[in-house]
Structure formats: structure tokens, C-alpha cells
Amino acid sequence: MVALIMGQINRHAEQVTATVLSNKRVGQYHQILLNVGEVVKHCKPGNFVAINVGGPSSAMVLRRAFAISRISDRGEYGGTMELIVAPHGSGSKWLISQPEGAHIDLVAPLGTPFGIPTNPVRALLIGGGYGSAPLFGLAELLKSRGCRVDMILGASAAAKIYAPLEGKRSVSSLKIYTEDGSTGIMGRVTDPLEQLIADGEVDVIYSCGPMGMLAAISTIAKRNEIVHQCAVEESMACGIGICMTCVLPIKGGDGNITMVRSCIDGPVMDGELVLWDQVGQPQ
Amino acid sequence: MVALIMGQINRHAEQVTATVLSNKRVGQYHQILLNVGEVVKHCKPGNFVAINVGGPSSAMVLRRAFAISRISDRGEYGGTMELIVAPHGSGSKWLISQPEGAHIDLVAPLGTPFGIPTNPVRALLIGGGYGSAPLFGLAELLKSRGCRVDMILGASAAAKIYAPLEGKRSVSSLKIYTEDGSTGIMGRVTDPLEQLIADGEVDVIYSCGPMGMLAAISTIAKRNEIVHQCAVEESMACGIGICMTCVLPIKGGDGNITMVRSCIDGPVMDGELVLWDQVGQPQ
Amino acid sequence: MSVELDFSTSFGNAWFPLPVFTASGCASSGRELSQFFPLNEIGGVVTKSIMIKPRLGRPTPRMAETPSGMLNSIGLQGPGIDAFLANDIPWLVSTGARVIVSIAGETVEEYAVLARKLRSVTGLSAVEVNISCPNVENRGQVFACHPESARAVIEGVRRTLGGDLPIIAKLSPDVTDIAAIAREVVDAGADGLALINTLLGMVINTSTMRPHLGGKTGGLSGPAIRPVAVRAIYQVHEALPHIPILGMGGVRNGSDAFEMVLAGASGISVGTASFSDPLATVRIQRELAQLLVEKGFTSLRQAIGFAHRDDEVNGE
Amino acid sequence: MSVELDFSTSFGNAWFPLPVFTASGCASSGRELSQFFPLNEIGGVVTKSIMIKPRLGRPTPRMAETPSGMLNSIGLQGPGIDAFLANDIPWLVSTGARVIVSIAGETVEEYAVLARKLRSVTGLSAVEVNISCPNVENRGQVFACHPESARAVIEGVRRTLGGDLPIIAKLSPDVTDIAAIAREVVDAGADGLALINTLLGMVINTSTMRPHLGGKTGGLSGPAIRPVAVRAIYQVHEALPHIPILGMGGVRNGSDAFEMVLAGASGISVGTASFSDPLATVRIQRELAQLLVEKGFTSLRQAIGFAHRDDEVNGE
Ligand SMILES: Cc1cc2nc3c(=O)[nH]c(=O)nc-3n(C[C@H](O)[C@H](O)[C@H](O)COP(=O)(O)OP(=O)(O)OC[C@H]3O[C@@H](n4cnc5c(N)ncnc54)[C@H](O)[C@@H]3O)c2cc1C
Ligand SMILES: Cc1cc2nc3c(=O)[nH]c(=O)nc-3n(C[C@H](O)[C@H](O)[C@H](O)COP(=O)(O)OP(=O)(O)OC[C@H]3O[C@@H](n4cnc5c(N)ncnc54)[C@H](O)[C@@H]3O)c2cc1C
Ligand SMILES: Cc1cc2nc3c(=O)[nH]c(=O)nc-3n(C[C@H](O)[C@H](O)[C@H](O)COP(=O)(O)O)c2cc1C
Ligand SMILES: Cc1cc2nc3c(=O)[nH]c(=O)nc-3n(C[C@H](O)[C@H](O)[C@H](O)COP(=O)(O)O)c2cc1C
Ligand code: FES
Ligand code: FES
User: Fold this and answer.
1) pTM
2) Which segment of C50-64, D232-246, D266-280 scores lowest on mean pLDDT?
3) Domain C9-307 - what CATH class?
4) Same structural domain for residues B16 and B34?
5) Ligand nearest to the CA of B64
6) ipTM for this model
7) Contact residues of ligand 4, CB 6 A cut-off
8) Residue of A233, A237, A211, A232 lying closest to A64 (CA atoms)
9) Angle at D144 between CA D143 and CA D150, to 5 degrees
10) Nearest to C195 by CA among C241, C232, C141, C238
11) What residues of C are in contact with residue A90 (Cβ under 8 Å)?
């Protein structure tokens, strides 16, 4: 696994101007393909990008963070990167309204990647909402290393499940859970987890999604002594480690709490180390 | 002439959503044609519009004022309005970047129109830079009332002269002055003024352009007792008479100074009443 | 709305069926806005601060746009109280609008004189006392900046006005401790507080390399200052939970207004937003009503200061 | 640039070849930004305010974006002065960067302790004293808000530090009279002033209907506050024309920096702008140089306070 508390910015991070190659609506999300050039070579599953939103006279002064969904450094455009964007507030809405050809100012790659096991293992990938975005690229990579990849996706409703056809190819199994039962099984991604682990189907869990989901998975993983790498999501003002807004409480080596920056020591973290019950609590 | 100090907002002013029909570069300016609907019926030469700029998450909180260049209430689109926009700061640059089909939030018509004489007179129209924009519509109107219309346009350089071909048709004569001589005569619009007046060619002067130009014309008009209607340009925060930022010092009836709002008691004012030397001076 | 919402509010003994008002200086005397909506469809019109004598105000330029805000330096241009009472008020009252007159003076005495003139005027709902004005008797320092001068103005107005018309004291955010000033003016007889006036700011014109505004400094308003306004409202409501607050400062939509209500505002004034949207006041009022209903409130009153609900429990 | 420009500046006896700095708390200890540009190509790095002990800081969320600005409530998270001096400073000094260490305390004594620790550290250019911290000995009121406590901190630091290292006192804009505080701290031994720290603000989360930030209130920064910063710089330069000012608050480009220089700043710190543009500090420095040359200045010094040039003539 990757070292967790490096306290160092991704050494490949740079500011680039990307061009929108396509922008398609997929369910409640937008799939945005960007031409980003050379930088793609250093992007790994789990990394994210930080995007300037709103144009030159925007009232929005902070970048927005988006997970890198998939990358390609071949093809007619050179390096391309795909983002899956949920319309949330004004920044994401601006982004999904960008037409083909628009220029996007982004900093990439940022943060830690998912750690890739050196031996083939049985990996369970769990995604919540747009949290599935980086998991398909991860699945491909794991598969290419001989891992077996199972995937569970969950969301409140069908339109919030992101599971592209191409992506499904890289997984051995895919289960979908929705809270309203509008697609897949009615329930939550954590429902089948204990059983799968008991059945010996899981060596390592990779997850990405809402913090509550990550916390719940962490509890189960810890109880069952399964390694759990999760990509967290805290409000970030800078994305490059200089503002200290994105911190999470971590169990330090000495047993004390440490507040680490999730933009450089994350987003991918060891779920066991995060003190989930203390996130957002006064110290 | 129109009453000058009415202290009342243009009674036809309303907020409308306009659609960009075309947006063309003309010299240093952009000629923007808007579909504005019914409101066009109440727009007169001299009136202006106030436009929201920058879109929903813009840091620009104030509307921008633009003179109505020409209007048409016939044609395939219903009421249309043309604006001539000079790229200046972020607001005007946003406006000139709006593509065909974009929606524009505008308030129109605003302010006082040029007063139209009841008898046919010899009218001299003087425009500086984009200040010529409203003069062509005015020229057509004056011509339709049997007036003779001469026009003098001036600017620092050729690219800042706005004089469309169609517009030229409505004037009997057109002289152009540029400070660098890059087109027309080298000099200023005021250079030939005394002589034209002395020659008995001018009953009334209409002007629109930079404040310095209007002041200079006013001095000459006053000395020669020629009526001078000028469209002024002060910084405006609201355009509808509620903020008191756009004021100009006027000689009141009692000889005292009055500060009138140029957005509702202007932009067209009696040049003789404006206390030009006190504009921007502490009272 | 299908759900019943009690949208009324009070400042002292003045009851208003609706809670969103214009902000002083951002609606002149209401005439212009009345072309865009009927003035009796909002909480009320707060008029531009009026002084005793006619005033020409500051030289132009009087405004500068700033990021998400603007500076103004109008310098209280106006016709003087007599012309104002003769021309503007009767018209305004005739529209059925509820009227809050804002007054401004250069001495404690001037405020009292203004209050005396208002005593006999019919149709007024309240008086807003703009104490963010330079005190000519004390090196031009703003009344609202010092507890003593703030208190003196409100005491004078209270005494002269008699007991009927509610007084809303309008405070400046440019102070070290706004809750302390609030306490003084309430103690001196204010029935409510208007929070906040503009922040003192400046823009230098990089072409002329001089202060851009004719008056050099100006008042900063608009969305840029909203976090400061919300904080001031929150602090003052915490200190004086029973004093109604007229909240303002960068309110642009219903959600902004709701934020202020949750922080402790009993009513909202809309200023700068009217410059870009003449319908802002009615629109914001409508949006606020919708939000209250969506959140399950059946009256505005329930929501006032709701963001403080943990305070008693947690201590802090 | 083909034209010669003397772009250097001084704070007390510290001379800097370049005038644009990072802002405290907006560059951590420089390491991350060094990936985007060499740290010795700017005026210097002002480090995040360091306290005596390690601190975890405030709970999350620690930030909220606001119109043209943001609120932060970090609560001075940091490793404590000893770890900081052991790990961060040697690295920073090794990059060739000029270093200004920012210190923060909860008592007058703590500031003095911090100053003592800095005495023997080599490679520092100056100390920035962040007095916008709650004074635990006086009801948690911020040191910078009262002349006496502001003075006490700076006197303590000056005494302990000895005479060599220049002191830059960083003031809060949340005061009634910033020039008065400035006078006190200069009198107490500050060689320069940093203007301005953030404004106290708050955002209410309309979903939870509670203050959005874990720490309830936060500091407002970014372009939204620039007019307040320019005004503060202008006022303080007017009151103390010979005291160098490190200007900051919403500087986003060269023109913003130029505005502050004209108002009276001898140097510029760039904070929030680095969050959206990691290269902001160098870019702004380059743009400022271009503007100075375009306007015909041959040195930064000539432009400092240039907007005041009419003051002597016109009085005001
Ligand atoms: C590491 C990381 C990866 C992410 N990946 C994705 C992704 O792949 N797809 C996607 O749709 N979204 C993703 N998000 C969430 C995305 O950043 C937010 O939805 C977005 O910032 C919201 O901005 P806004 O202007 O639309 O909303 P607003 O609510 O207007 O934003 C206001 C401020 O709050 C911050 N903010 C709001 N919501 C979030 C959030 N959920 N997480 C962090 N900051 C937030 C914004 O960045 C902004 O600074 C990711 C966030 C992080 C931290
Ligand atoms: C009655 C009237 C009619 C006008 N007609 C035209 C026209 O037909 N074509 C045209 O190109 N321009 C016209 N202008 C000028 C136009 O309003 C400004 O160029 C425009 O507001 C600049 O905005 P900006 O965001 O591009 O510049 P910025 O400098 O970024 O604007 C900042 C602020 O200053 C104000 N401002 C800046 N320059 C001016 C100015 N010259 N006059 C008034 N306010 C200004 C802006 O409105 C804005 O509030 C007119 C102005 C007025 C008052
Ligand atoms: C152009 C302008 C003029 C103002 N005039 C006054 C005034 O006369 N009296 C007063 O108390 N406040 C005045 N204010 C302050 C506003 O009433 C309000 O307190 C402030 O602008 C904050 O609200 P806003 O951000 O919604 O505009 C004025 C504000 C502006 C922008
Ligand atoms: C996230 C953040 C953290 C900050 N931390 C500190 C700090 O530790 N010490 C300090 O003196 N100022 C701190 N500041 C204030 C800045 O140094 C600066 O004074 C202020 O942000 C205004 O500048 P800006 O608008 O360019 O950011 C901080 C600001 C931000 C945004
Ligand atoms: S987002 Fe700024 S340190 Fe992580
Ligand atoms: S622009 Fe507001 S009154 Fe004229």
C-alpha cells in the first residue's frame, strides 16, 4: 500500500489548460472528456483534478475538485481524461455547461492514488453515486494485474448510479443497490458486505463515495481485518496542500490524533486510520 | 423640447429577456442585434437600456448602460433593437462575447429621448466614438419630420468611428474627424462648429459622446445661442433612478445648483443647463 | 402557497404583514420602483436617509463596482426634511405602502429636530435612525462608532419622538464590538436594530492613480459583505435575543434572506440587489416564503434565530 | 523588461529584492508552492502563523466559499514552534527563499516565548506578529482589537527579540480605528505593518440551518474584501507615512497589487489567490513590475503612496 502520511503534494501536479472534447449527459451526471496533454501520463486511479470555474469575472474564487474517472494517452487527441460531474452548486453547473472546444484551467494530477497490490488478489470495489467514477479505471488496472474485481454500486435512486457499459467489461461481477429500489436491489452497498467477506470473496476493499458510506465500510472492514482503501471527500479550498481546510482526523503513530490534509495525504486513505467518528467534531 | 427635470423614471421601463439575433464586429465595436419584443414600441432615439452582465455566478453586480442605436418593430422577429458596444472592461467584453441565441436580461427603455422639433429645422448631429450609435436612428426620425440633417463624427482613430452604410443614407452630409488623421479630417468635431453656425447652417445641435466633447460643444452652442441637446454619460449603478450615483450639476430655476440623475433626467439634457465645469467637483 | 404561512413581523409596536423591505438609499422614495411592482406588496419602503437641509452630496464619480460588490459615496444628497415631507411622504402613503423614514444628522441635536418633524406625520410605521454619519462635533467620527455618541443620538430621538413610533437604530459594521453598540442604543430606547450599513472601503483608479471616488472613500455593499452582515446579525441576536433586527447586506435571493433570518433577523432589507433587479425585493420575499414553507416552518417567527438553537445546550 | 526598474523594498532593516510575498496561512511552509515556482523568485515566504504547542485546529468544515471570497476557520493548526524550526525552516532557508516567520499566541507571554525561540534562528528576514488571535486572558478578545493588548504583544516581542530582526505587526480590520492601533504598535516597536487580516464573517448552512463552519465564525478573505484593505492601507499610510506596509486582502492580479502600492503598501502578500492559481504570487509580481514600468516609474518606492500626492495641496 502507498505510504499514507507523506505530507507532500503529488510531485507531478501542474497547471494545464485543457480543452473540452465532449460533454454528454449520462443519467444525472455529465461525462466530460478533456484533452489534457502530457500530464495524463502521471495520472493514476484515485488522483483528482482541481478546476477553475465560472470564467474570468466569476464570483467563485475557489477551484472545484473532481476525481479522474478514466484516462487515455493514446488516440487522436493525445492525452485525454474523463470526468463524471454531478450538478450540485454553481461551479459544477458551470462545468457541465461548457461546450465542446471550451478551455478549462485545471491542476492535475492531485492527491494519492489507490495502492495496487503486487500480487493478484480478490478486490471489491464499492462506489456511491458519482463515487464510482474512478473505480472503473481502477478496475481495469487491477484486472491487468491479474486481480479479480467485483463491484458494488449504490445510490439513492437509479439516475444516480454511474455505470457505463464499457466500464462493466472490466469487472467480474457488478451489483447495484438503490435506496428506493428503482434499479438493482433495494438497500445499501454495505448490506451484502459481511457475507461476502465471510464467504472469503474479499482480500481488499476499494471505495469511493459519500463520507457516511466510507465510514460504514470502514467499520465492517476493520471488524473483519480487511484492508480498505477509500477515497475521501472533504471541502477543499486549494487542493494543493497550502490552506489546511481539507483535514481529516487520523490515528497517528503515537496514538494521538493527527489532522492530515486529504488533498495531499488523500483522497485515498487507509480507512482504518481515519477517525470517522471525529470527522467534523471539535478536538 | 422635452421637459428637463422631471425626476421621473421613463414610464415605459420594464425588465425583459432579449435574445441575441446577431453579433458582428464593426471596426473596434460590436453591433449586437437583439430581439426584445413589444417594448421596442416605446423606445425612442436617446433612450438607453441597462443590461445584466456576466451570467448567474458573476462578480459583476451592476447593470451596464448602452444607448439604443436603432430599433425596428417590423420584420420576421418582431421588435428588434441594435446596440453598438465598445469593449471596455469585463462587462462589455462579456456582452460582445455573447453568441447568437443567448438570452440577455435588460431593462428598457430608460431615460429621456432626444426632443424632436415640431417644425422642420436644420439639425447638426455630432457624435464621438460609439456616441454616434443613437444618432443614426435620430437622423432617420428627424428626416421623416422634414428636417435637414448634417452629421459630424469624431474619434481618436479610424477604427473608433462608427458610421454604418445604411446610416449614412439618412443624413444630408457627413464629416469625419480623427485626432490622428487616420480617416477623414485630422482634428476634432468642434473645429468646424463656429463656422457652420456663422454660416447659418445650424438651428439645433444634437450630440452624444465623451463628456469633454459635450462640454466643448455646449460652450460654443451657448455662445452662439444655439439649442444643444446632448446625451451624457455618467457612471450608473442602477439606471432607474434609485441610487443617486449618476448625478450631474444643473443650473436650477432659482439659480442654485441641483444635482439631477442623468439616468432619468437624462441621458438627453439641455447642454446649456449642465454646469460642465462643476461635474465631478466638490460642491 | 397552499400551506398557511404567517409571514408577518414586528418592530416594536409596528406590525408588518410581510417581512422584506427596501434598504435606505436603495429605493429613493419608492416612486421609481413602484413602476415595477406595487409598493404595498412588500414589507415596506425604507426611504433614503433624510437630513434637515437640502444637500447636494458628494462629487462624482459616486460609485465603483468591486468584486461582488460596489462602493458608493452619495454623501446623503437629498431635498431636506421639509420638501421630503411635503412631496414624497404623502405620495408614498397614498400608495398603501408601509413607510419607514430614515433620518440622518450631523449633530445629536439635528437628529432630535428631525424626530420632532416626524412626530405629527401620519402614515409612518417606524423611524430608522442612520447613525453611520460623521459627527461634526467630534472630529467627523461616525456616531455609530462610539457607544456614547450612538446612545446620545437615540436618546435624543426617543425623547423628542414620544413613545409611539418605533425606532430602528441602524448600526455600522466598522466597529470593534457591534454587540456593545447594540446594547447601548437599545438601552437608549431603540425598539429594533438595522444591521448592517456599508463597510468603509476605497478603490484607487489605476489610470489616474488617485482614489476613484469623488469622495475618496465609499460604502461597500452587495454580496461581498454578506458574511460580515450574517456574523453581525448572529452576534447581536445572541447578545440581545429579544430585539428585532432588520437584516441587510448583500441579500440577493431568498436563500440569502433565509440565512439572515436563521441568524436572527426579523425582517430583511434589500439594497444593492435592486440595482441589478428592480423586482428584487418582491422576488426575494416570495423566495423566502417558499423556503420557509419547504423547511416546514408555519411562521416566520419560528425561523428567527433558529441557527442559535444549539447554543443553550452546548454552552459555547 | 528592457527598462530598468528598482523593484526592491524594505521593512525595517530587512531589504528584499522583490516586493511580492505569500500571505501567512496561504502557503503553508512553502514546500507545496515550490513545485510550481522557485521560492527565491518572489519577495519571500510568510509562513503560516506558528504557536508554541502543536495544535489540531478547528473542526471541519473549515471553509465556505462566499461571493468573490471565502471564509476559513483553520484555528491555527500547526506542529508547534519546535517541530517547525526543526523541520520547516531549515528546508525553506535552503531553497534560498527569504523567510518571514509569522507567530501567534494566546497570551502576551506566549508571543515573547516565540520571539525568544526565533532569536537564534539563522536565515530569517523578519517576524510577522499575527495579533488577530483571541487573548485567552481577556475574554478571548482579539489582541489586535484593543490598543493596549496590541501594544503589549509587540512590546514583549520587541524586548525578547532584541534589535535585529524586523517586526511586522499584522492588524485586524475589525476595529473602529485601525490607524490608532497602528500608531500603538509602531510606538511599541513594530518596524512595519501587515494590513489586513481577514474580516470576521459567518455563513449559515440553509440545509442544516446551523452555522456552516465547524468553528461557527471564520475569516473572510479574497477579492470581496479588497476595498476594505485598500482603505485600511490608505488610512494607515496617511497617519504613518514612513512606516512600511505589507498590503494584502484580495489581491488577484498586478493591477490589484498596484492599487495597494499607490495607497501606501511597500510590499504585497498574496493569499487566497494562490488557492485558485498556484502561480499567483509570481504572476502578480511580474504584472506589477510591468504596470510600474508602463506608468513610468523607475522604482517601486516612487509609487508607494502615490495616490496621496494631492493630500498636502488640497488639505482634505
Ligand atoms: C477529492 C474530491 C473528488 C471529487 N470528485 C468528484 C467527482 O468525480 N464528481 C463530482 O461530481 N463531484 C466530485 N467531488 C465533489 C465536487 O468537488 C463538488 O460537488 C463541487 O465542488 C461542488 O461545487 P459547486 O460549485 O457545484 O457547489 P457549491 O456548493 O456551490 O460549492 C461551494 C463550495 O463548497 C465546496 N463543495 C461543495 N460540495 C462539495 C463536496 N461534495 N466535496 C468537496 N467540496 C464541496 C466547493 O468546492 C466550493 O468550494 C469531489 C470532491 C473531492 C474533494
Ligand atoms: C447612458 C449611457 C449610454 C451608454 N451607451 C453606450 C453605448 O452605446 N456603447 C458603449 O459601448 N458604451 C456605452 N456606454 C458606456 C458603457 O456603459 C460602459 O462602457 C460600460 O458600462 C463599461 O462596463 P465594463 O464592465 O465593460 O467596464 P468596467 O470599467 O469594468 O466597469 C466598471 C463599472 O464602471 C461603469 N462604467 C465604466 N465605464 C463607464 C462609462 N463610460 N460610462 C458609464 N459607466 C461606466 C460600469 O457600468 C461598471 O459599473 C453608455 C453609458 C451610459 C451611462
Ligand atoms: C447607493 C447606496 C446608497 C445608500 N444610502 C443609504 C442611506 O442614505 N442611509 C442608510 O442608512 N443606508 C444607506 N445605504 C446602505 C444600505 O441601506 C444598506 O445598509 C447597505 O447597502 C447593505 O445592503 P445591500 O448590500 O443590500 O445594499 C446605501 C447603500 C447604497 C448602495
Ligand atoms: C486559509 C487561510 C488561512 C490563514 N491563516 C493565517 C494565519 O495563520 N496567520 C495570519 O496572520 N493570517 C492568516 N490568514 C490571513 C491571510 O494571511 C490574509 O491576511 C488574508 O487572507 C487576506 O488576504 P487574501 O485575501 O489575499 O487571502 C489566512 C487566510 C486564509 C484564507
Ligand atoms: S485543500 Fe488546501 S490543504 Fe487541502
Ligand atoms: S443610475 Fe441610479 S439613480 Fe441614476
Assistant:
1) 0.96
2) C50-64
3) alpha beta
4) yes
5) 2
6) 0.96
7) A 243; D 23-26, 48-49, 72, 74, 76, 102, 130, 170, 197-198, 219, 221-222, 225, 248-251, 270-273
8) A237
9) 70
10) C232
11) none
